[in-house]
Write a structure and sequence with these properties.
Blueprint (H helix, E strand, L loop, with lengths): L7 H13 L5 E2 L8 E7 L5 E6 L13 E5 L11 E2 L9 E8 L2 E6 L7 E8 L2 E7 L13 E4 L5 E6 L9 E6 L10 E2 L10 E6 L5 E6 L9 E6 L12 E2 L9 E5 L7 E6 L8 E6 L12 H10 L2 H4 L5 E2 L5 E2 L33 H5 L10 H4 L15 E4 L9 E5 L5 E4 L2 H10 L4 E5 L6 E4 H5 L5 E4 L7 E3 L15 H16 L5 E6 L6 H21 L7 E5 L12 H7 L1 E6 L2
Length: about 575
């Protein structure tokens, strides 16, 4: 049986809807089909990804509630005919959550072919390769619906599902990125946002303050309408009373409202106003809501409390404690990130924040220098050493000609924080007020050099030599480490080294590089080569995400075929597991 949209009565209703809202409200006619379009996400490389439900070409046929489809914008502003993305689709419900970088995508699967939860894929050419499930604490969806989006900064996932502590049906939850591989357990946003009814398709603005979502809590039988609410304080529990947006809502059901086109003040959403229960995409002016003051007043909170529907107030999930205040569900936490923060405060020391050994020729030749043991004399600098740190005291010379070079100096701590120092006074203030660990010297046309503070102090004759970044010149990126057997970055030391590489690429905008991935020779040679390519591609993605032109970075992988050391020893295998940078110009 074919499920079709649109009766004449509903088409008339849709025309009335269009006349009563913004003049530029525009259906995406080339993308919309007789089936159910929902949850559009714009990729950083151009195409629009979205879910299409009940399409006969879906993996599970016409009963399949959602496969992933995509469409690209043409030169005249139209969209191409949608194509199903087979490699991202299963027989169950599939939803694109977001793109952490240009070659990585997060997709929710409902558990029919892959485990329930969010999964990570990497793009290679026009295809997508499966990587792994996203680790997200006690994530569990007990209902049939899921929607969610990755925040603009990639640090938060805001999602809708029925799970621990839900007030009725689907509620909105938030999860915070803890590191490259792990996210926090989803936290319910509380009863200011969630109700006995359905709250779905959340979208969070880039400043983490305004939340748009759909709910049928007060839709009077019209399906779901789009509302907005704003965070009132430093927590993720205190929100303004949800308010219906002035445009977009109709006699149908609206969902998926989101501003996904960065160059235009346009929102995309799904409406059933022109269909028999199935949705079409529509564009409309995005409603930018002025921010409220951060301080929440008690009378504002009282008005929120009184606005809760009676069915919600009687929910068995809400009880009163001994002081007469409402108890929240058990999974709510009292310590939430502040505005501007995106994850929960750390209670324990992060073992990944180990001391960072800079990239130098010496560390390549002597891997023992990569030991993370602390050296007291490197942690502080006596004021007597400041003169040695004077930018004008250390001479930076071309290794081939011996000529002096104009250079830049950056300092960094152990947590991927880098600061450029341009004057002697900036240097003096930096070392008086911060426990810097590492120095990097940058010069246009030369390979960068990183040193510890001790190495900087001990430079022979206060001279540092740099090698020209000529075609064929190379560096071993020794401090870039991956989780064993994967292409996932292992620690903060890796991110810090990558950020240094970004600075080098920005300083030398005319340079093209090639990244070569290498492994040891243990295991299957074919898998080793594939892994080495993935690792080099992962670095390219990070650089592109930081603003480096994708076309300036080429990649290749050699597996274990080009060892630098003996693979029969642990030390040798560690040396051989590396990424090398070559200058191609």
């Amino acid at each position: 049986m074919t499920i079709w949209k649109a009766s004449s009565l509903l088409l008339l209703a849709f025309s009335v809807f269009m006349e009563s809202t913004a003049q530029n409200l525009r259906p995406l006619t080339n993308i919309n089909s007789p089936y159910n379009e929902s949850h559009a996400v714009l990729s950083p490389f151009g195409p629009l990804f979205f879910s299409v439900g009940y399409h006969p070409e879906n993996t599970g046929g016409q009963t399949d509630s959602g496969d992933i489809w995509m469409s690209e914008m043409t030169g005249n502003g139209d969209w191409t005919k949608p194509q199903r993305v087979k490699s991202l689709s299963t027989t169950g419900n599939d939803v694109v959550i977001g793109f952490p970088d240009p070659i990585t995508v997060m997709v929710y699967h409902d558990g029919q072919q892959k485990s329930q939860g969010i999964h990570i894929y990497n793009r290679f050419g026009d295809s997508w390769n499966y990587l792994r499930p996203l680790q997200m604490g006690n994530f569990k969806n007990e209902g049939g619906h899921f929607s969610g989006r990755l925040s603009e900064n990639g640090e938060v996932i805001i999602m809708s599902m029925k799970s621990f502590g839900s007030y009725g049906n689907e509620d909105i939850y938030v999860s915070f990125k803890e590191n490259e591989n792990f996210w926090s357990s989803p936290v319910n946003l509380g009863s200011n946002i969630n109700s006995y009814a359905q709250e779905q398709t959340p979208f969070l603005t880039g400043d983490m303050r305004t939340l748009y979502f759909s709910t049928n809590a007060s839709a009077d039988g019209r399906g779901k309408n789009i509302f907005y609410s704003q965070r009132l304080d430093d927590s993720w529990q205190n929100w303004t009373k949800p308010v219906e947006i002035s445009s977009a809502n109709s006699i149908g059901s609206e969902s998926g409202y989101a501003k996904i086109f960065p160059q235009e003040n346009m929102a995309i959403f799904t409406t059933t106003a022109n269909s028999e229960g199935l949705g079409d995409f529509v564009l409309i002016d995005f409603e930018n809501i002025p921010l409220v003051e951060l301080e929440a007043k008690l009378d504002d909170l009282d008005s929120i409390e009184s606005a809760i529907a009676p069915e919600q107030q009687n929910s068995s999930n809400i009880t009163l404690n001994e002081t007469g205040n409402r108890n929240e569900p058990e999974n709510l936490v009292s310590m939430q990130p502040k505005l501007g923060q995106t994850k929960l405060p750390e209670e324990k020391t992060d073992p990944s924040k180990a001391d960072i050994i800079p990239l130098t020729e010496e560390t390549v030749k002597n891997p023992s220098l990569s030991d993370n043991s602390e050296s007291p004399e490197l942690n502080t600098i006596e004021k007597a050493d400041f003169q040695k740190l004077d930018l004008h005291e250390v001479k930076v010379l071309d290794r081939q000609t011996g000529e002096a070079i104009s250079y830049k100096l950056t300092v960094s701590d152990n947590n991927s924080f880098i600061k450029e120092l341009k004057t002697q006074e900036e240097m003096r203030v930096a070392f008086e007020t911060w426990d810097w660990k590492h120095i990097m010297v940058l010069a246009k046309g030369y390979l960068p050099v990183g040193l510890s503070l001790g190495e900087w102090q001990e430079l022979e004759n206060d001279i540092l030599y740099l090698d020209p970044a000529d075609s064929g010149a190379s560096l071993v990126l020794r401090n870039i480490q991956f989780t064993r057997g994967t292409s996932e970055f292992a620690d903060n030391r890796t991110l810090l080294e990558l950020d240094r590489l970004v600075l080098f690429m920005k300083e030398n905008e005319d340079i093209t590089i090639r990244l070569e991935g290498h492994t040891d020779n243990l295991g299957d040679p074919g898998l080793n080569k594939e892994l080495s390519i993935k690792r080099a591609s992962k670095i390219r993605t990070y650089l592109a995400m930081k603003g480096i032109d994708f076309e300036r970075i080429r990649t290749s992988g050699w597996g274990g075929t080009k060892p630098l050391a003996n693979n029969n020893t642990q030390e040798g295998r560690e040396i051989n597991r590396r990424v090398e940078l070559y200058i191609e110009r």
